[in-house]
Amino acid sequence: MGRWDVATHWRLANAATELFEERGYDAVTATHIAERAGVTRRSYFRYYADKREVMFAGTGQTPPELYQAVRAVCPGTPPLATALEALARVGSLLIAHQRNLARRRALIEAIPELKERDRTKLAELAEVVCAALTHRGADEDTARIVAQIALVAYENALARWLKAEGREDFASCIAAAATTLQAAVPGTAHP
Amino acid sequence: MGRWDVATHWRLANAATELFEERGYDAVTATHIAERAGVTRRSYFRYYADKREVMFAGTGQTPPELYQAVRAVCPGTPPLATALEALARVGSLLIAHQRNLARRRALIEAIPELKERDRTKLAELAEVVCAALTHRGADEDTARIVAQIALVAYENALARWLKAEGREDFASCIAAAATTLQAAVPGTAHP
DNA sequence: ATTTTTTGTGTCTCACTGTGTCATCACGGA
DNA sequence: TCCGTGATGACACAGTGAGACACAAAAAAT
Questions:
Q1: Residues of B with CB below 8 A from A123's CB?
Q2: A74 exposed, middle or buried (CB, 10 Å; 0-12, 13-18, 19+)?
Q3: What pTM was estimated for this model as a whole?
Q4: Fewer Cβ atoms within 10 A, N terminus or C terminus of chain A?
């Protein structure tokens, strides 16, 4: 997969972004996207499995990166803090390498079909975090719930970061989400 | 919408469940489902918007019910407890009125396309809970995060309930998920 | 340098999805 | 009995996603 023309990947992604903005998601077909990017419809489907996937260009390596990031967190760190730290790291990197991220995220938030796919991607990341936490020795049930919660924080942090338009760094957005989270859950720990 | 034949809804749902189990989701077409239920393909799409929706038969009224359930919780209850109590109530009712729930849930968990739709439904419920909590006076950010967390607990509780095969009631499954949750999140409240 | 293999693309084809439209049929009320 | 409404069937159509095959260019092997 790695040898595919990276430029074509981005040409398709940019073409799709423009077309979706210009004409609306439903009015755009895979053929339109392919034509604007200078390939055939059939080739489009070799780059992206379906019409939705093109809006998530550049995120293919995130799951393995995240897995490694969780495993790289300082041993002894409690599960939730581990997950949040890894997500802060990976999220910061991801954001830096994206193109037109804000425009694509706006489309994803606005179009139910894309939002649906977005949730699947978050769920996949949760799976990865869960697996990595389990590997670190966490309890199975705890790992699953912690992973899901951490991704709730991640999602909210991303929304916050986009709203700030560069005036806030991603790690502090994660921290803010974590604070809201801790305030909302009545802790059982009473030191 | 109310005058539609309820029996046909369930005939289609049962036909789909059987066919998916027999031949696998991909090998089954909307035409097959319709034929087994004794209607035409076109009529299938009048009962269910697409091929996925049929596996979620009987859940159409859940969002408004949930909204009311949140509003009905004793005033003064903190947000997360409110959401969990409402979900326990609505979930119990839902489970009681379903047919072939376990078989359908097994298919949903196994087939990515169905799981994707399932996540959307959970997200819709989270929206509803968020709106209802906001209406009760909760902070906007808090309401959103609490709602999402509560639905993480709901999802885990449902999985646990299905695994117990009737030996556990739904409310206690919610309680168990809530406990795991509280243990995982280091509380900031130190009374 | 020539052959072989791999990789991306174009072309053609096909089953299936989801929707619009129109005709029909059952049923309840005036 | 006639009429209106709402469910259903019949037909048509754009679009999706994928298989099969050929072809060109690059990479690897000889």
A1: 115, 119
A2: exposed
A3: 0.92
A4: N
